[in-house]
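Final report, Chapter 2: Outcomes

The project's central promise was a pipeline that accepts a single protein chain and returns its three-dimensional structure in a standardized token representation, suitable for archiving and comparison. That pipeline is now operational. To close this chapter, we reproduce one record exactly as it appears in the project archive, with the input sequence first and the structure output second.
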Amino acid sequence: MAKGHRSQIKRERNANKDNRPSAKLSLARISVQKACFVLDGIRGKNVDEALGILAYSPRYGATIIEKLLKSAIANAQNNNGMNPDDLYIAECYADKGPTMKRIRPRAQGRAYRIEHRLSNITIVLDER
């Protein structure tokens, strides 16, 4: 049986909403494994330290994640009024997105499938 009226259930669900500043990038043209390799290097670090790591990382995912981190910092400043010097990366993860399927012609009339994997990357900040 139901636990209450629909509006009451929605009110309870929205009361538990996370108010930490975050930024999300949907359908990034990078696989989850490659994105997670970069995200593991910055998880739990201060924002300034993480930006330094991303600036000098040779990986393609570092440029995408650096732009996303700057967006999360701007969200924290403008929406929550937080000081960027006190921020650190509380959570960062990449989820699997849809896969674009393409066909590549091969020898003897065969066709090989090429899969371009996409991911959804999320960064959540918090104050120390």
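Archive annotation: The helical segments are 6-15, 32-42, 47-55, 60-80.
This record, like all others produced under the grant, will remain available to the consortium after the project formally closes.
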